[in-house]
Design brief:
Blueprint: H1 35-40, H2 49-55, H3 76-88, H4 104-121, E1 130-131, E2 138-140, E3 143-150, E4 156-161, H5 180-191, H6 196-205, H7 213-248, E5 263-265, E6 268-269, E7 283-290, E8 298-305
The structure holds zinc ion.
Zinc ion binds at residues 118, 122, 125, 128, 150, 152-153, 155.
């Protein structure tokens, strides 16, 4: 190894900061930053995820605080939940940590079946601990199929339907029969002025398990279709009754030919009426009743809708 001519010995004992001991030497203090100085730089800190998300601008400032975010703190609802579980001190264990709605007779049958079979299948386990595990659950909208398990020996029974089923809706031939509760809900929804999204919000507010939006939509369409069928059938039936009554009164009623009669119709709209000669509406309904008999049965129903092309008139 020859001597490198370019290498110079570094002298530490020269210059203003020479390593030599100086008597009474005190190091210069760092100047404290003023507010103005701090304003010049972005403060580097890890922000909570919710704050970080709000401050974020995709193009200008994609990482506020210059660092990735910290996990967000609990929301107000979560805080309440935490408080209540702290106070109650409930150990949910393996159980489903939530409320469920069951048909009580079916639940009792399941418990009795479980008790009998548990005694047969694992006779050594004398004091079973009933558990309803989360992994044994199958949701069907508002209702559930549940499994019961013994917490000691692990014997399981289920999933078993804990709800009543309704008849298949018209036009549906495949898949499991719908739960009665779900169909009842869909029918009730046709009678009030809220849609499935609002209904879902209501159910979520109560912490109740609700069907998915698409499931609710499918059920609603099926129910509406069948209601429409029922309505048309009932109108036809009423017209038949009216014709029969007229025939009994001695009027000439020919099969397949129209019959003159008295009736009344009254239109209603989806928006309130105003003064004027015209009525602006996107939807209008016109029920027609006969006034020839004392029953005053509904014999026709006209419906016009500007929102969709599908028009039904009976
Ligand atoms: Zn057991």
């Amino acid at each position: 190894m020859g001597k490198n001519p370019w290498r110079r010995k570094r002298r530490r004992d020269k210059g203003p900061h020479s390593g030599r001991f100086k008597q009474n030497n005190t190091q210069q203090k760092k100047r404290l930053l003023t507010e103005e100085d701090e304003g010049q730089f972005e403060k580097i800190c890890r922000l909570k995820k919710d704050v970080w998300g709000r401050a974020r601008e995709e193009d200008v400032n994609p990482t506020p605080g210059r660092l990735r975010p910290l996990p967000a703190g609990p929301t107000e609802l979560e805080k309440l939940k935490l408080e209540s579980s702290d106070n109650g001190n409930i150990d949910v264990g393996e159980n489903i940590p939530d409320h469920r709605s069951f048909s009580v007779p079916l639940l009792m049958t399941l418990m009795n079946d479980f008790s009998d079979r548990h005694a047969q299948e694992s006779p050594t386990c004398l004091k079973p601990v009933f558990v309803m595990p989360k992994d044994g659950e199958r949701a069907r909208g508002f209702v559930f199929q549940e499994t019961v398990k013994c917490g000691k020996c692990g014997y399981r029974l289920g999933p078993v339907k804990l709800y009543e089923e309704s008849e298949r809706l018209p036009g549906k031939t495949r898949g499991p029969k719908p739960a009665k509760k779900n169909v009842q809900f869909a029918v009730a929804l046709t009678k009030i002025g809220i849609g499935i999204t609002a209904a879902k919000t209501l159910m979520s507010g109560m912490d109740a398990h609700a069907p998915s939006l698409s499931a609710m939509h499918h059920l609603n369409t099926a129910v509406c279709d069948s209601l429409e069928g029922i309505l048309q059938k009932s109108l036809a039936e009423n017209r038949g009754k009216y014709r029969h009554a007229m025939e009994l009164r001695g009027k000439l009623v020919e099969k397949g030919k129209p019959l003159a009669g008295t009736g009344a119709g009254d239109g209603c709209y989806n928006n309130p009426s105003f003064y004027g000669v015209s009525q602006r509406a996107t939807q209008a309904a016109l029920p027609v009743i006969e006034t020839g008999t004392q029953d005053q049965m509904m014999i026709g129903f006209g419906f016009a809708n500007k929102l969709c092309k599908n028009e039904v008139t009976e």
